[in-house]
Amino acid sequence: MDYKYIEQLLERYWACDTSLQEEQILRTFFQQEEVPAHLMPYKAVFDVQQEQAEQTLGEDFDARILQITEGESVRALPLQGGLRRGNFLRPLFQAAGLVALILTIGMAAQRSFDGAEKGQQTMYAQTDSIENPAQELIPLPEQQAAELTVEKVDSMNLTR
Amino acid sequence: MKKISFRDDVLPLKDRLYRLALRITLNPAEAEDAVQDSLIRVWEHRDEWEQIESIEAYALTICRNISLDMAGKAGRGNVQLSTINLSTDSQLSTLNSQLLPDESQEQKERIALVRKIMDTLPEIQRSIMELRDIEGKTYQEIGNILKLSETQVKVYLHRARTSIRQQAEKIEKYGL
Known about the structure:
By secondary structure, chain A is an all-alpha fold. Chain A contains seven helices and no strands. Chain A has a domain at about 5-55. The longest helix of chain A is centred in the C-terminal third of the chain and has 48 residues, at about 90-135. Chain A is rod-shaped. Chain B is mostly helical.
């Protein structure tokens, strides 16, 4: 290794005349364990730089930051802005929401009920003739019931 | 200019921000807080990213300002740094009296002293040394980050390197 070159570079380094590449050469040179004794004090300077370059944050740091930035849209923003300003209004909003919900369900129910009533009026008229004999069938004596079924069977046979 | 993503373009700057914050606050916990605050502030200004020339320079500038605030609140600054300077001298003599023959031990002590010397430099010099010697930034980039002219950057860096050189040579001449 040519120490003259290193010494020259070093001299220019102190004078801030070295380029970034030349500074990298110095850094690489001083990274070796053994350098001439007269350069050892300067090696300490580059050793400290090396040590400083290795200072980094812990691994959990990313997760913490991303939780803040990426969770913001769903959590942090409404929490920070909404909670403070709209806090006292919150029960009111909930109540209003509940009322709106009840009204919607009520109106929907009313509608289907109205619609059903209109349709059912005609349906009742039709079903009366069907339902009533069916209801009468139950209390009917067994004989009459049997006759009815016979008649039904007869009419079925006739249609065939 | 390409679209900037927080996860891919901003978050990876964290260690660089941390080292700068550490040079300023000289306290790892405070430096970490400073980086967190800086990243959140960069994030809050995400609608301005498109107009920013260099997101890295932007983040570093924010980080330095936040770190300076923190160091200021903690009552540190150049006033207290000068007292550290005095204690370095007294530490020099104590170390001198307990000189160890082991060479690697000697080098360890040299490193410890250089570290101390660097920490006692004015903040602006520490910040410039960090950006130049650790992060490999050009004078122009450093000027951009610190809002200084290239000449000013060079002047400060020259002062910093001269102090370190003198101190390192002084240690060598008078022993550790």
